[in-house]
Amino acid sequence: MGEWNKDNGSDEAVVDRLRNEVDQTIDCICGPCSNGWMRRLDDNVSTFLTPMMVGSRTRLSPTQQRLLARWSAKNAAVIECCYDAPTRTPPSAFEYLRRIGVHPGTQVLVGRYEGDAQVLSHERDLFCRTIDDDEHYLSQSSFVIGKLLIQVLADPQQHSTPELGEDVARLLLALVPSLDRKIDWPPPLSIDDPLYDLVRLGPM
């Protein structure tokens, strides 16, 4: 998706460009998915996603948190198709996302971005570690959408959410599990560009 400098437009322009780029048609997605559950998911998050992107106050219910987490995980899985990396979301995890929701090995985090370097961007990182002599890959997708930072951490081989580093847990709000709590947006702590590098490169 690349980067977009703030000088290129207003918050409303960012919202319009997001709709065109994040929801772009990618060849690896079939028509029934693109026009079915994915489209419904996009429609369901649109009412509360827009105020989050422009930094307006809003409150996320547990249902909205689950929708935002699933929408974020969906975008992370879809945009993988733009990269040449051999490690991608396996079909079983994608099918879980389609039929049920966020895979148990996935964590979705949100934070308030107040930096200058990015307004609309996406980056994907892979981290590898060995567990019981097997290599496990943690995929991390970081989205900046206006004033909203979203991180999706996914380890489809695990059945529990990835553990977070202390700094990341302090700066970002975890959407998984949603439990029975409401989240007030924006959070009190914001993320500037040096902190963005911290949360992107030091998740574990």
| Shape label | globular
**Through-space gap between termini:** 25 Å
Mean pLDDT: 81
Strand coverage percent: 15-25%
| Radius of gyration, taken over Cα atoms and rounded to an integer in Å | 16 Å
In DSSP terms, counting alpha (H) and pi (I) runs of 4 or more, how many helices? 7
Main sheet summary: 6 strands, mixed
Order of helices and strands: HHHEHHEEEEHEEEH
Q: How many structural domains are formed by the residues?
A: 1
- In terms of structural class, how would the helical and strand content be classed? alpha+beta
Helix content: 25-40%
Notes on the protein architecture:
It is a single chain. The longest helix is centred in the N-terminal third of the chain and has 18 residues, at 37-54. The strands form 2 sheets. Strands 2, 3, 4, 5, 6 and 8 form a 6-stranded mixed beta sheet that branches. Strands 1-7 form a two-stranded antiparallel sheet. Mean pLDDT is 81; it is low at 1-10. The protein has helices at 11-21, 31-35, 37-54, 62-79, 91-99, 166-171, 193-201; strands at 58-60, 106-113, 120-131, 134-145, 148-154, 173-174, 183-185, 190-191. It has one domain (6-201). The protein has 204 residues and is α+β, with helices and mostly antiparallel strands. 33% of the residues are buried. The radius of gyration is 16 Å and the shape is globular. A hairpin with a 2-residue loop joins strand 4 and strand 5 (148-154). The protein is built from 7 helices and 8 strands. Helix 3 packs across helix 4.
